[in-house]
Input
Amino acid sequence: MNILVTGATGKVGSRLARRLAQRGERVRALVRDAARAATLRADGVELAVGDLLQVDSLQAAARGVDAVVHCAAFFRGATPEQAHAVNHLGTQQLAAAARSAGVERFIFLSTGLVYGSNGGRLASEDDPCAPSAAYPVSKLAAERFLLAAEGLDVRVLRLPFVYGDGDPHLAEAIPMVRGFPPSQRMSIGHHADVAQAVGLLLDARSPAHRIYNVTDDEAPELAALCALEGAPPPDGSEAERARAFDAILDGRRIREDLGFEPRYPRIADAVAAGA
Output
């Protein structure tokens, strides 16, 4: 299969592109800076220099592609205007290029943050979404555009907090959650399991649903995650801000429909495996 991966120099996209190449797919990575992606080329990934906001580059990158896996996004440090431009409008332009190129499947990596606050309950794919922060607002807008688009087989994966594979994501998140309640739980998922979920959607001829949550079997408390990084537990001083992150993902649908089983069901399993 010829697969275009966007965001291929990011945390998720770089690891996903390598795993897809390792399983025998022909992977083309859309990158803004080829020098930053040199290691991908060494792993057998073809590089296409372009940008979500440059229409001509998207048309060239999508040519001859069977599937698009859209990971690219502007998250940390993005203003609401920047998040909207890249995550929503950029996705629209990529979808148009994919449709024009006759792409068979378009997999959009979204975020579980689109559910917004629900009091810490399990959030299933059919639940209403009411995000408040700019990033998930822009991702939800992109989801809705894609799912309404004609002539494109779109599937959405709503990801949890992703970790593992040498990714410093968890350590980087410690300052952000410093004021959250220590007992607040967070859905997590290993990079290997994100790649597994993408692979299952690429392989499934006609998945029963268009939206799937991806998550490990366990949603640890923030105090436990901080302890893994040798950090003290959060102090609860910003409980109101923490509410935007309190939904826990219900991962039953992808297990029942596609046979997804986390390689690392708990973060303790990844620690034990040195992963």
